Automatic annotation (TrEMBL):
Subcellular location: Membrane
Region annotation (Disordered) ranges: 480-499
Keyword Transport annotated: no
Residue span, Penicillin-binding protein transpeptidase domain: 289-599
Sequence ranges assigned to domain Penicillin-binding protein dimerisation in this UniProt record: 59-243
Protein name (database record): Peptidoglycan D,D-transpeptidase FtsI family protein
Gene3D superfamilies: 3.30.450.330, DD-peptidase/beta-lactamase superfamily, Penicillin-binding protein 2a (Domain 2)
Listed InterPro entries: Beta-lactam/transpept, Beta-lactam/transpept-like, PBP_dimer, PBP_dimer_sf, PCN-bd_Tpept
Length: 624
């Protein structure tokens, strides 16, 4: 029995050995098959996957172009900067792996390197950043970001490259990203025209950032200013932060942006902004806007609003980032009487010296319209009708001109149409088609009510007569200069002949009476616009504002306007300004003539405009 039992035990042992061998052989075969599969069939795919994991496409940013004034003064430009970022999860993992290797080394009886402490390292990094960057960062805020559980966090933006390098030399795991910091050295200077540009975060991990315009010309001309970013493909190691030398390929060079040269003169722009703000306060107006045009070319030398924003700041008020000088139309009032004057002279209806018997009021359809001052019948010259801004006399001449010829003049002057100045948000103003005019419409339009325009459009009317009867639509961009230095001048719009050169000259001369200081009834409406040594020509305007709450024109809310030419005998500049709801009745709330005088005086001095050969003649406005 004992022998049988031993024989059985031996048989069981042999069976177990055989089974074990088969299992081992099976395992080896499976491993071999897997190895063959990986090496022969999956090798290429796995290699490609591994490569993708360490391949990074790094964008090469294009330098954004500058915006300069007509003399090359920089209004906006970019400087190189850095953003510093961190990968908290990846760095924690790297430290954990490092410490685990040291533990294994110790267990194997080897001497391991010192262990790392994430909290201690991040504390050291935060202190170094505060030391180098100062008030640009806050230590507590940095520690909160560094010790978060996020994959990628930005620690600080707009760091000087040299300072960023100092920090990264001590902490190679820190991530540097290229930035271009947009600088506006003038702060508020021309900010409503230039606008602002800022970063748009498109893919933080890939550092695919672009500086783009938000408002103004920065937005409208963004494509030209931005250029075209490039890229380069690289292989990385250590969590994707370190580029493997010599791995660069597929490089697409960046194309820098173009510079934009404006027609604006920075010195004049600064002066006009300061004066707009000053007269805004003096008049108590809700807003003030002004413009200066070249009389011949229509180029915008300055375009200002009394309230603006500092483009170098942040947290801008959207309301202050608008540009009312081109976006906000108004009813012009008596400055629009120049249209009737041009038409009446062009069609031989009158001459400046003709005398008209002007009553105190006139009936137009179902409306009775009076002058701003009460009077009986007066003998007024044509120059007097406009020099004293008679509504009644203007409507008498407009009636002889007729609606058809008047409407044609408005069309040729571009009223109700955008000027195409080259600024965003431009309003066309408003003008009813002639087919929709009622009987009383022609009692409103010649005296500047029932239609609206921007201060830029208003100045354009006077540019027409200053330029010999040819309207040249205004422009604010002079040229575009490519990164290669090649200059492309902006296309100049063709002029529109509105009236003859003789009519334009006669109208300019006649409107000198507005600024004359005569005796008795021979005062013009704006003697404070006069400039010693230089002839000036222009027109005042006061327009009631329509009040929707009462459903009619208000007796307390007005637009005050002025449009003028300097010098009148050889026109160089056209100036226009408008006050919205000034404190009517106060010295600076009833006329913009003093504002015009200050601007005309600056223009004469700044551009060394020669003195007029003779002063403006004092002409009869009201005769016995």
């Amino acid at each position: 029995m004992r022998r049988v039992r031993k024989r059985a035990q031996g048989t069981d042992h042999r069976v177990r050995v055989v089974v074990t061998r088969f299992l081992l052989i099976g395992a080896l075969l499976a491993a071999g098959l897997k190895l063959v599969q990986v090496q022969l069939f999956q090798a290429e795919a796995l290699a490609e996957k591994a490569l993708r994991q360490r391949v990074t496409i790094i964008p090469i940013p294009a330098a954004r172009g500058s915006i300069v004034d007509r003399n090359g003064v920089e209004l906006a430009f970019s400087v190189e900067a850095r953003a510093l970022a961190w990968q908290p999860r990846a760095q924690r993992k790297a430290i954990a792996e490092h410490n685990a290797k040291q533990d294994e080394a110790v267990k194997a009886g080897k001497q391991g390197a010192a262990k790392l402490d994430y909290d201690a390292d991040t504390a050291e990094l935060a202190k170094l950043m505060v030391k180098v960057l100062g008030s640009q960062v806050d230590e507590a805020d940095l520690l909160e970001k560094l010790r978060s559980d996020k994959g990628y966090v930005y620690l600080v933006n707009n760091v000087e490259p040299g300072k960023a390098r100092v920090i990264k030399d001590s902490f190679p795991a820190l991530i540097e990203e290229y930035r271009a910091l947009r600088e506006y050295p003038g702060g508020e200077l021309a900010s409503n025209v230039v606008g602002v540009a800022n970063w748009r975060m498109e893919d933080p991990v890939q550092a695919n950032h672009n500086l783009h315009g938000l408002v103004g010309l920065e937005l409208l001309r963004d494509n030209a200013l931005s250029g075209r970013p490039g890229s380069v493909t690289v292989e990385t190691k250590e969590g994707g932060n370190v580029v493997i030398p010599g791995s660069e390929r597929n490089q697409q060079p960046a194309v820098d942006g173009s510079d934009i040269e404006l027609t604006i003169d920075a010195d004049l722009q600064y002066f006009l902004q300061q004066k707009s703000a000053e007269y805004g306060k003096r008049s108590g107006a809700k807003s003030v806007s002004a413009v200066v045009l070249d009389a011949k070319t229509g180029e915008v030398y300055a375009l200002a609003n009394d309230r603006t924003f500092n483009a170098s700041g942040s947290g801008w008020d959207p309301k202050l980032m608008q540009n009312p000088a081109v976006t906000t139309p108004y009813e012009p009032g008596s400055v629009n009487k120049v249209v009737t004057a041009m038409g009446a002279i062009e069609h031989g209806i009158t001459t400046p010296k003709d005398v008209h018997s002007v009553p105190g009021s006139i009936r137009v359809a179902d409306r009775t319209i009076s002058d701003a001052w009460a009077h009986g019948r007066l003998n007024m010259t044509t120059a007097g009708i406009f020099g004293k801004s008679s509504n009644v006399g203007t409507l008498m001449l407009a009636e002889q001109l007729g609606p058809d010829r008047f409407a044609d003049l408005l069309k040729r002057l571009g009223i109700g149409q955008r000027t195409g100045v080259g600024l965003p948000g431009e309003s066309p103003g408003s003008l009813l088609p002639q087919s929709q005019w009622s009987g009383s419409t022609f009692g409103n339009l010649p005296i500047g009510q029932g239609l609206s325009m921007t201060v830029l459009q208003m100045a354009g009317i006077y540019q027409t007569i200053a330029n010999g009867g040819v309207r040249v639509p205004p422009r604010i961009v002079k040229s575009v200069v490519g990164p290669d230095g090649e200059r492309q001048d902006e296309p100049r719009p063709e002029g529109v002949r509105v009236v003859s050169e003789k009519t334009a000259r006669t109208t300019v001369d006649m409107f000198r009476a507005v600024a004359q200081d005569g005796e008795g009834m021979n005062d013009g409406t704006a003697p404070k616009a006069a400039l010693v040594g230089h002839q000036v020509s222009g027109k005042t305007g006061t327009a009631q504002q329509f009040d929707p709450e009462i459903g009619r024109y208000s007796n307390s809310k007005y637009w005050i306007t002025f449009a003028g030419i300097v010098p009148a005998d050889n026109p160089r500049f056209v100036v226009g300004m408008v006050y919205d709801q000034p404190k009517y009745g106060t010295p600076d709330g009833v006329s913009a003539a003093p504002f015009f005088h200050d601007v005309a005086s600056f223009l004469a001095q700044h551009y060394n405009i020669p003195l007029s050969k003779e002063p403006s003649p004092v002409v009869p406005l009201v005769v016995p």
